[in-house]
Write a structure and sequence with these properties.
Layout: E1 3-6, H1 11-18, H2 22-48, H3 57-60, E2 62-67, E3 72-77, H4 82-87, H5 96-105, H6 112-121, H7 129-149
Helix pairs in contact: 2-7
Length: 150
């Protein structure tokens, strides 16, 4: 699961982008990257606030990748369980091996009680990435407009 922020968009915005000077293009790419880093930082902060925080593997796996020559930033976790934390799950029986370390670090003798609880109730959503994006998005748009108006 990744959040994309970019300087692409509506037809009007696309026309403005085509009229941009090289300096404006460079500034907008820097803004895309800076906003991506801000989203990454906010997402990590949000994860630290969750009760299920363990060793920080999910937070440490959140990367910012620039694509299309820096016009787009992809921000998201490389940890495979990232989407399940963000969006929750329906009841299912998870692989016990995946939870064994977590269970032992949190005082359980095995992962079975955790697996049974997930099989019965699923996992509640603990959003971290999308809320981080929503916090940063207004400033990102404001800064892009400022760059376009120069």
């Amino acid at each position: 699961m990744k959040v994309n922020i970019s300087t692409e968009g509506t037809k009007e915005l696309q026309k403005e982008i085509e009229r941009m000077s090289k300096r404006q293009v460079a500034e907008s790419k820097r803004e895309v990257y800076a906003s991506g880093i801000d989203i990454q930082r906010k997402a990590k902060e949000k994860l630290r606030g969750h009760k299920a925080w363990d060793q920080g593997n999910l937070a440490n796996s959140i990367m910012v990748d620039l694509i299309k020559s820096g016009a787009i930033a992809e921000i998201g976790p490389e940890a495979p369980y990232g989407p399940y934390v963000e969006g929750g799950t329906k009841p299912h029986f998870p692989p016990p091996d995946a939870l064994e370390g977590w269970a032992r670090r949190h005082g359980f003798d095995s992962a079975w009680p955790i697996c049974k609880a997930i099989a019965k109730r699923g996992l509640k959503a603990r959003p971290y990435l999308y809320p981080a994006y929503l916090e940063i998005e207004p400033k990102f748009h404001e800064n892009l407009l400022r760059i376009l108006r120069k």
